[in-house]
Amino acid sequence: MNPIRTLPWLAALSGVIAILAFSGVLPAGLGYVFKPLTTVLIIAFAWPRGGDATKQRRLIRTGLILSLAGDVFLLWPKEGFLPGLVAFLLAHLAYIAAFCVPLRLGAKPLVFVGYAAIAALILSMLWPGIPGGLRAPVVAYVVCLATMAAQAGAWWRSRAGTSAPDASLARAAALGGVLFMVSDSLLAINKFGAPLPLSSLWILLSYWLAQWCIASALRANR
Question: Number of helices and strands (H, E) in the chain?
Fold first, then answer.
């Protein structure tokens, strides 16, 4: 059996165990193992892909590894929040650079306006609950996150309705960007706003789907 084909199932199983652990259904200690393991499995899925786009492959790999570092930091929500935020900010910078390989930054201005408006709306709603010392890092992070998602969306919009060979890759990147915004918005609401029911389920599920989609923006090697 091709081990690459088993990775989706292994990642799904690992993610389910992590979600159940953080939800209190399974022992909490399992979450400290299976949360980073799920991201490691996504990295393993991405690693052999993208042989036709070496620069983009290198940047997406970098983003995934930085995300893994962020996952580890956020296992300690208080002490690790700021280091985790920085790790994910750097991951988004790597993803932005990756999505600039097929399309220059800001090539679709209206896409950026739309994502900026959504990000600003969510940030304004949560602003009163964000501690003063975290406001600058959070704003920087939101700007990077929205830019990443917008650049992925712009890449997709530039290929929509065409027969471009990377159209499906661009669509995967755009979906990943949207899911990342959903995940981080839920995380921010849960942390700075009001507690969400089943927060671990929705935050982690949308996060790992986002990373899987971004990994899928690299073409599978034949």
Answer: 8, 0
pLDDT per residue as tens digits for the range 72-120: 999 998 899 999 999 999 999 999 999 999 999 999 999 999 999 999 9
Q: What's the N-to-C CA distance of the chain in angstroms? A: 16
For residues 79 and 93, what is the distance between their CA atoms, to the nearest angstrom?
Answer: 23
CA quadruple 217, 35, 73, 150: dihedral sign: positive
Inside any domain, residue 19: no
Amino acid 137 reads P
Neighbours of 24 (CB within 10 A): 10
Measure the CA–CA gap between 47 and 31, rounded to whole angstroms.
24
Residue 150, amino acid:
A
Residue 7 lies in a domain: no
The beta strands (E) that lie in the chain are given as: none
| Residue-range definition of the domain harbouring residue 170 | 53-215
pTM of the complete model: 0.95
| Position 39 in a domain | no
Based on the structure, what is the number of domains in the chain?
A: 1
One-letter amino acid for residue 187 of the chain: L
Using CA atoms, how far apart are residues 7 and 220, in angstroms rounded to an integer?
Answer: 14
DSSP string covering 75-94, please?
Answer: TSTTTTHHHHHHHHHHHHHH
Element (H, E) at 217: none
From the list 61, 6, 65, 71, the residue with the least C-alpha distance to 33 is: 71
